[in-house]
Amino acid sequence: MTDTERAAELIAHAERTVVFTGAGMSAESGIPTFRDALVGMWENHDPMTLASPEGWTADRDLVWDWYAQRANDVRRVDPNDGHIALAQLAVAARIDGRAVRVITQNVDDLHERAGSTVASHLHGSLFAPRCESCRRPESADTALITPRPMCPLCCDSLRPGVVWFGELLPRDAWAAASDAVAACDLMIVIGTSGVVQPAASLPERAHVEGVPIIEVNPEPSELTRLATIRLAGSAAETLPRVIG
Ligand code: BJW
Ligand code: ZN
């Protein structure tokens, strides 16, 4: 049996699958991965600094504009065949009384636009701006607006609804992810380098519990050592082949 066939069999028989995704999931939709973005620059600014509390405090307009551009870029692209295969898997599983729960590190909305319900956005969303003072949430479309709008309630600054280094993950997102992992009997890890904590501890937790892990990634990652089956290919090409 090939690895693809073994993976397809595990997926077809799992009762409670967790799908854990990273930036590679959206790469074939045209969204650069986080580590690809680090190689490039944005108008001569380092993305690592832009995506940090320090960068935000130093220049809120600059950081807001960067996120607004990224939100606009995401709006212009479509979910890829990998996103669509995962959404179809969840529908097929539900008919059989089985469950598929998606945990993503991605701040885009491509899983949702493909038809998946996302159990947890661990690192927040490009489309969930909020006031940095009173925390009042603003509409998704507000994230697309430049220049940076102010909070209509307290007139303080809105901020992107993403999680920067050194910030705590949203409590609900972390709880939902932890619950899903505690209950799963299969994990599919797709397109993540596995270097960012605490997200990367989730596959570790599943592995400790003896849960089989399928990794889909053209390159080895920090999580490859946990994988029962490693499918060395891209998300959009590999997922439709293993999801029957
Ligand atoms: C394909 C493909 C294709 C390509 N198909 N695959 C030691 C222990 C524990 C924690 C820490 C520690 N040292 C420091 C920390 C804390 C820190 C951390 O983890 N740092 C590490 C870098 C060491 N973590 C945090 O700060 C977190 N908070 C926290 O820990 O709170 C407690 C605390 C508070 C105070 C002090 C210390 C602790 C918060 C982390 C927030 C991460 N936020 C970001 C930015 C979001 C906003 C934005 O997008 O601008 O989230 S960083 C960035 O990395 C983004 C991503 O979600 C995240 C993960 O990246 P991902 O998805 O893995 O992408 P890449 O680009 O790395 O990899 C892409 C992969 O795809 C590659 O493997 C490719 O091969 C593959 N690929 N094409 C399939 N077609
Ligand atoms: Zn406010």
TrEMBL record:
<dbReference type="GO" id="GO:0005737">
    <property type="term" value="C:cytoplasm"/>
</dbReference>
<feature type="binding site">
    <location>
        <position position="67"/>
    </location>
    <ligand>
        <name>substrate</name>
    </ligand>
</feature>
<keyword id="KW-0520">NAD</keyword>
<comment type="similarity">
    <text>Belongs to the sirtuin family. Class III subfamily.</text>
</comment>
<keyword id="KW-0963">Cytoplasm</keyword>
<comment type="function">
    <text>NAD-dependent lysine deacetylase and desuccinylase that specifically removes acetyl and succinyl groups on target proteins. Modulates the activities of several proteins which are inactive in their acylated form.</text>
</comment>
<feature type="binding site">
    <location>
        <position position="134"/>
    </location>
    <ligand>
        <name>Zn(2+)</name>
    </ligand>
</feature>
<feature type="binding site">
    <location>
        <position position="235"/>
    </location>
    <ligand>
        <name>NAD(+)</name>
    </ligand>
</feature>
<protein>
    <recommendedName>
        <fullName>NAD-dependent protein deacylase</fullName>
        <ecNumber>2.3.1.286</ecNumber>
    </recommendedName>
</protein>
<dbReference type="GO" id="GO:0008270">
    <property type="term" value="F:zinc ion binding"/>
</dbReference>
<feature type="binding site">
    <location>
        <position position="151"/>
    </location>
    <ligand>
        <name>Zn(2+)</name>
    </ligand>
</feature>
<dbReference type="GO" id="GO:0017136">
    <property type="term" value="F:histone deacetylase activity, NAD-dependent"/>
</dbReference>
<dbReference type="InterPro" id="IPR026590">
    <property type="entry name" value="Ssirtuin_cat_dom"/>
</dbReference>
<feature type="binding site">
    <location>
        <begin position="191"/>
        <end position="193"/>
    </location>
    <ligand>
        <name>NAD(+)</name>
    </ligand>
</feature>
<feature type="binding site">
    <location>
        <position position="155"/>
    </location>
    <ligand>
        <name>Zn(2+)</name>
    </ligand>
</feature>
<dbReference type="GO" id="GO:0036055">
    <property type="term" value="F:protein-succinyllysine desuccinylase activity"/>
</dbReference>
<feature type="binding site">
    <location>
        <position position="154"/>
    </location>
    <ligand>
        <name>Zn(2+)</name>
    </ligand>
</feature>
<dbReference type="GO" id="GO:0070403">
    <property type="term" value="F:NAD+ binding"/>
</dbReference>
<dbReference type="InterPro" id="IPR050134">
    <property type="entry name" value="NAD-dep_sirtuin_deacylases"/>
</dbReference>
<dbReference type="InterPro" id="IPR026591">
    <property type="entry name" value="Sirtuin_cat_small_dom_sf"/>
</dbReference>
<keyword id="KW-0862">Zinc</keyword>
<feature type="binding site">
    <location>
        <begin position="105"/>
        <end position="108"/>
    </location>
    <ligand>
        <name>NAD(+)</name>
    </ligand>
</feature>
<dbReference type="InterPro" id="IPR027546">
    <property type="entry name" value="Sirtuin_class_III"/>
</dbReference>
<feature type="binding site">
    <location>
        <begin position="217"/>
        <end position="219"/>
    </location>
    <ligand>
        <name>NAD(+)</name>
    </ligand>
</feature>
<feature type="active site" description="Proton acceptor">
    <location>
        <position position="123"/>
    </location>
</feature>
<feature type="domain" description="Deacetylase sirtuin-type">
    <location>
        <begin position="1"/>
        <end position="244"/>
    </location>
</feature>
<feature type="binding site">
    <location>
        <position position="131"/>
    </location>
    <ligand>
        <name>Zn(2+)</name>
    </ligand>
</feature>
<dbReference type="InterPro" id="IPR029035">
    <property type="entry name" value="DHS-like_NAD/FAD-binding_dom"/>
</dbReference>
<dbReference type="GO" id="GO:0036054">
    <property type="term" value="F:protein-malonyllysine demalonylase activity"/>
</dbReference>
<keyword id="KW-0479">Metal-binding</keyword>
<dbReference type="Pfam" id="PF02146">
    <property type="entry name" value="SIR2"/>
</dbReference>
<dbReference type="InterPro" id="IPR003000">
    <property type="entry name" value="Sirtuin"/>
</dbReference>
<keyword id="KW-0808">Transferase</keyword>
<feature type="binding site">
    <location>
        <position position="70"/>
    </location>
    <ligand>
        <name>substrate</name>
    </ligand>
</feature>
